[in-house]
Amino acid sequence: ICMLGITIVAAPGVPGGAIMASMGILTSILGFSEADNALMIALYIAMDSFGTACNVTGDGAIAQIINRYFAKE
């Protein structure tokens, strides 16, 4: 499970890239079958857009806070 976490954090910022990078770990270490892998891909792709939306919204909020804090009046 730790290897899976490291792989997902280190995966490139490509939509669905994290799950594709972790397919080898899911199959070899955790023993997932092809059907299990297909289910994981479908679930990850379904929830990936929500994670991206939260990330973008958080980045925008922090940018606004920094902008107001350092704004010259």
Tell the overall outline: elongated
Largest sheet: number of strands, sense, barrel closure:
none
What is the radius of gyration? Answer: 17 Å
Task: Count every beta strand, where a strand is a DSSP E run of 2 or more residues.
Answer: 0
Structural class: mainly alpha
Specify the number of helices.
4
Flag low-confidence runs. Answer: none
Portion of residues in beta strands equals under 5%
Overall pLDDT: 87
The ordered H/E elements are: HHHH
Helix content range: over 70%
Q: Concise description?
A:
With 73 residues, the protein is mainly α.
Describe this structure in words.
This protein has 4 helices and no strands. The chain is 78% helix and 0% strand. The protein is elongated, with a radius of gyration of 17 Å. The longest helix is centred in the last third of the chain and has 37 residues, at 34-70. It is mainly alpha-helical.
